[in-house]
Amino acid sequence: MGPGTSYYSLSLWSPVPGPVPLVQLVKASPRLLRISRAMAAFRDAPPKEAFTRREWPIIRRCRSPEQVQRFLRSLPYNWERGGDTLRSFREVVRRGTAQCLEAALVAAVILEQHGYPPLVVSFESKDGIDHVIYVFRRRGPAPHDGGRGRWGSVARSRDAGLHGRMPVFRTIRDLVWSYFDPYVDFTGRITGYQLVDLRKLGRYDWRFSRQNMWKVEKFLLDIPHRRLRSSDRRYKKLHERYKEYRKRDPTGPVIDIYSHRDTWMALD
């Protein structure tokens, strides 16, 4: 990604090739670009009246990605023991439980109300057990980022290392790499990723549907993913380390063996 270039023109997957025309007008001004993103998010977001009395207080309370991460961690993980699910924000709030993609959708709905675009990153794994995280970009005080901000994420998973990340990553690729080591278990290995704007689903109701939303899953599976090349030597080392850890602790969360945990959002 070159200096001054928006992620909307280079990194964001779209079925229509080419950059978003608005970005060509504002990419030279980081401040104007931030304003245009917030305006676009508010324009496409549902009005307050679309939410129930139970839902709106959650949105008012969770005004930042960190607050949304804490809210999602307060929910029991959805182990789908009664069968596969893919629930909307409305159904997650009603049932009080969420798995990884459901959590990403919840984060997108809540933070959309606070001016964040509904962006997710889809991971591909060699074992077919994929992962989806909500991503956001926040401008920091450091001048060396050129005003473009740093990427972070909000996420839920059965694995502690696959939860959210603080906004410290220069690129989406750097953010994805922060998940590579914790992704390696008995079978997992990230092989690809893609940044996706959920507004590309058009008029499909991914926010409030009462039904399982398999169209969202298909949409994410069908998009072209960017390949993430990694060293076989590195993978084998991580794989052996994970297996050794599991011999000592067959059931507990895997946390201590990973470096750079200072970039993880709080797990409590």
Q: How would you describe this protein?
A:
It is a single chain. The protein has 268 residues and is an alpha+beta fold. It has a single domain, classed as C8orf32 fold (Roll). The chain has eleven helices and seven strands. Strands 1, 2, 3, 4, 5, 6 and 7 form a seven-stranded mixed beta sheet that branches.
| CATH class membership | Alpha Beta
SS element count, helices: 11
Care to count the β-strands? 7
Mean of all residue-level pLDDT scores:
88
Helix percentage: 25-40%
| Strand percent estimate | 5-15%
What CATH architecture would you give? Roll
Q: How much is the radius of gyration in Å?
A: 18 Å
Tell me the domain tally.
Answer: 1
SS class: alpha+beta
Main beta sheet strand tally, sense and closure: 7 strands, mixed
CATH names the topology as: C8orf32 fold
Q: Give the low-confidence spans.
A: 1-11, 14-28
The rough form would be described as globular
- The string of secondary-structure elements, in order, is HEHHHHHHEEEEHHEHEH
How far from one another are the termini? Answer: 34 Å
Write the layout of secondary structure elements.
Blueprint (H helix, E strand, L loop, with lengths): L6 H4 L1 E2 L7 H6 L3 H15 L10 H7 L3 H9 L15 H7 L4 H13 L6 E7 L5 E8 L11 E5 L10 E5 L2 H6 L2 H4 L6 E8 L16 H9 L3 E2 L4 H17 L20
Parallel strand pairs: 1-6
Antiparallel strand pairs: 2-3, 2-6, 3-4, 4-5, 6-7
Give structural attributes:
C8orf32 fold; 7-stranded mixed sheet; 268 residues; alpha+beta; 36% helix
